[in-house]
């Protein structure tokens, strides 16, 4: 297939507002939970929404492919808050949303949605003008300019600093003057901060315009070095209307096959052009740091519950007031 270097990205990543080791970026071949090799007996039309940015990027190929097992009536959204209600009402069967949004919808709706796949790991990075920051403890004595105050990015960075012995507000300070990702990216391009935390694709946009900046820390890797379980920073997922899933199990299984294939092609940069991102160069360079995945079945709980616990401890409301139970995960 001809490589088409353009994809669903936006220079304002919507974050809950989820980077891990390379082996986690692709779904293992063979017997994967939730994915079977049976030939479908019926073709389904699935109403689905992708979210701009890395959370929706994995769907790009699927939306335009002629090789899908299902047909997809799709839409692209920049606002995750509008997708949950649509899935609950049945206006959409599935949607890509931030993981904490999924947990909140699940808890508040008493289980009317489920997560069928985790689709984005960490997209958060510390950028630096220099070579002094090589581990999280090197942030001691520094001010980190951040976006995402009172949301997942702040909770993640606070946890990683605290877990590694840094007292936030004393040993390391966060500056949220530019709380919007795009505004902070512009500030970084102008050589203003010594170091800052940004998500992809903003990271790539900054690096393309400011050669003094470098990626100092991959917070996904810092997480793996910090936690004592197998959890990851899990930023995005695909949810399904529970009633739809129960009545249309074959359609869900078909989707998992189609989506797995799409993710593999996106990561290989066989990307269908949806005319959303203005820069092909940024798209190409951002993909490896977007950590687009398709994790299904029992692996979803293993990879995400440690992450949800961190969010819950930081702010219970960020996951809907309580941790999601086992029924949250489609299996």
The SSE order reads: EHHEHEHEEEHEHEHEHEHHHEH
Low-pLDDT stretches are: 1-34
The largest sheet is: 6 strands, mixed
Count the beta strands. 11
Question: Any idea how many domains?
Answer: 2
| Separation of the first and last Cα atoms | 32 Å
The shape, in one word, is globular
User: Looking across the biggest beta sheet, what order are the strands in?
Assistant: 2-1-3-10-4-11
Written account of the structure:
The chain has helices spanning 54-57, 60-64, 83-89, 99-109, 152-163, 181-189, 202-209, 219-226, 242-247, 249-267, 280-290, 298-314; strands at 45-51, 71-77, 94-98, 113-120, 124-128, 143-146, 173-175, 195-199, 214-218, 236-241, 292-295. It is α/β, with parallel strands linked by helices. The protein folds into two domains: 22-122 and 232-328, D-Maltodextrin-Binding Protein, domain 2; 124-226, D-Maltodextrin-Binding Protein, domain 2 (3-Layer(aba) Sandwich), CATH 3.40.190. The strands form two sheets. It has a six-stranded mixed β-sheet with strand order 2-1-3-10-4-11, with helices on both faces. Strands 7-6-8-5-9 form a five-stranded mixed β-sheet. Strand 6 (143-146), helix 5 and strand 7 form a beta-alpha-beta unit. The longest helix is centred in the last third of the chain and has 19 residues, at 249-267.
